């Protein structure tokens, strides 16, 4: 199982050439793997973050955020994990001096699932040892 941070999700779906070769290979391997444990997970907070970026004209999807999410739901092996209260609490408990709440939630999701986290974010990579980039 792998978790994608928001940038990795955007790049994988809209500009795959921006992914590192290692990140791209990890995603492709997960898609090819036929085991039941194999899946790609994104946090629902990434859906929110993408929608906010679109509303502020900082990101163009080519479709509405709702249509984008509908297309995500069609991708085999991709699931969107809800952010429940325990994940919010886990994110607060991280011993990490990082103030980006979205990053904290995504790292907490990856840690909860004991999953690799695909991210280009240097701060996340310094903190979470299971990153791929």
Number of helices: 7
Q: Structural class, please? A: alpha/beta
The termini sit apart by: 15 Å
Strand order of the largest sheet: 3-2-1-4-5
Task: Sketch the topology as an H/E string, one letter per element.
Answer: EHHEHHEHHEHE
The counted number of beta strands is 5
Main sheet? Answer: 5 strands, parallel
**Please, what is the CATH homologous superfamily?**
5'-nuclease
How is this structure best described in words?
The chain is α/β, with parallel strands linked by helices. The chain has 7 helices and 5 strands. It has helices at 6-14, 21-32, 44-55, 65-73, 85-93, 101-113, 122-127, and strands at 2-4, 40-43, 78-81, 116-118, 131-132. Strands 3-2-1-4-5 form a 5-stranded parallel sheet, with helices on both faces. The longest helix is centred in the last third of the chain and has 13 residues, at 101-113. It starts with a strand and ends with a strand. 31% of the residues are buried.
Mind sketching the topology for me?
Layout: E1 2-4, H1 6-14, H2 21-32, E2 40-43, H3 44-55, H4 65-73, E3 78-81, H5 85-93, H6 101-113, E4 116-118, H7 122-127, E5 131-132
Parallel strand pairs: 1-2, 1-4, 2-3, 4-5
How would you briefly describe this protein structure?
The protein has seven helices and five strands, in the order E-H-H-E-H-H-E-H-H-E-H-E. It is α/β, with parallel strands linked by helices and 133 residues long.
């Amino acid at each position: 199982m792998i978790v994608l941070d928001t940038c990795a999700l955007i790049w994988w779906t809209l500009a795959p050439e921006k992914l590192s070769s290692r990140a791209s290979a990890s995603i492709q391997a997960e898609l090819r793997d036929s085991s039941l444990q194999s899946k790609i997970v994104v946090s629902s907070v990434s859906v929110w973050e993408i929608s906010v970026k679109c509303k502020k004209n900082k990101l163009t999807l080519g479709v509405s955020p709702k249509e984008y999410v509908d297309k995500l739901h069609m991708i085999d092996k991709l699931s969107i994990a809800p952010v429940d209260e325990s994940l919010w609490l886990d994110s607060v408990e991280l011993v990490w001096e990082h103030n980006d709440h979205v990053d904290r939630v995504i790292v907490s999701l990856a840690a909860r699932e004991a999953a690799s986290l695909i991210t280009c974010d240097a701060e996340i990579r310094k903190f979470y040892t299971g990153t791929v980039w």
